[in-house]
Write a structure and sequence with these properties.
This protein is an alpha/beta fold and 393 residues long. The protein has 16 helices and 12 strands. The protein is globular, with a radius of gyration of 22 Å.
Amino acid sequence: MRILMMKGQSQYGGTRLFADLAADAFRRRGHEVEVLDLGQTDNGGMLVLAHAAGAGPVDLIFTINIAGEFVDSLGRRLSDLYGGAPHVVWHTDYVLSQADRLKGTPASTAILVVDPTQADAVRAIYGAERFNHLAFFPHPAVGQSAPDDATAAEFAERRPIQVLWSGGFQKPEAPWTGVEGPAREVLQEALDLALSVEWIPPHEALDTVLRARGLDLDDPSIRGAREAAALVDMEVRKTRRFEFLKAVARTGVPLHIVGAGWESQLYRFKNATYEGPVEMTRMAELMARSRVVLNTNGNFGAGSHERPFSAALAGAATFSDFSRYYAQVFQPGVDIELFNWRDLAGGMEKLTALAGEPERAFEYARRAKAVTLAGHTWDRRIDLILEAGEAVR
């Protein structure tokens, strides 16, 4: 099979690395793969047209976040330019934050999301038939499989970083800038609802408030209001991440922090090393030197982030907020440590204990790595891409 992949710009190189790893996995299966790099030009559309003019037909197009909405001046989509090849787009962000792209994406494009409730949101707002194929695609692990530590003592010796935390700092400010009146009240009520429970999908929180105000969710005229679930998602994420920051700081556990914007917050930590923003390849290297990796799951309470699988591949244990998906894939308390947002104090007790028990972290890491290698690498995940392509071929 001849596969065309396109990659664009990416903060910390994340989606660009995903594209390269996917391409490598396809090649290991014997497929011919070309990766078209759109991130090195300001006019990706022209580059696509120039490439398509000489490329000939392909069997599958795969992109990450980008190009679902592509259309040229003649109304041609990517599939049209490449001989009718099915196009599969994997959205790694909260999908309603990409509403403009979604609305411009044809129904024949297969859409993959990182939390199954995001597929529910798309169906609820745009209709069950909006896309011919809409499915859950969990993150695969990133990085190389680290050498196995033979014993807990070797694990502790090889891994000088006790606890690793990555991600840019975001402090919740006054939300809903520029939104006034009833719309602001609705958003605030949805945020209050979302923060009052362990987790609720953002679109369900907002729909609950709209329904309580007597609005008909089947009315197409309020579609834009329902898309504002992306704003609720953003505020939940920032608020909970900041609460997590303060709670972790109070524990005093030794931290190695990477990410942008932390300079103003380092005073909170009595025992932390700050490296600044790093590329995802560097993050994978740091995981291989870490005992425990922290993960906050981006408000994907039924879905995934790449960190737990990448940490496992690197031989580290993971401490994460609860996700229904992780509870299905792993065994909490056996190969991963999960905490609940409604019991953050209890979660910090778990973190302090795990950080101070390298023997237990070693056992978690060993078991989680076996789970990850068995089913959560790019070599495993490409089957979902191939299935999506066949579904819309």
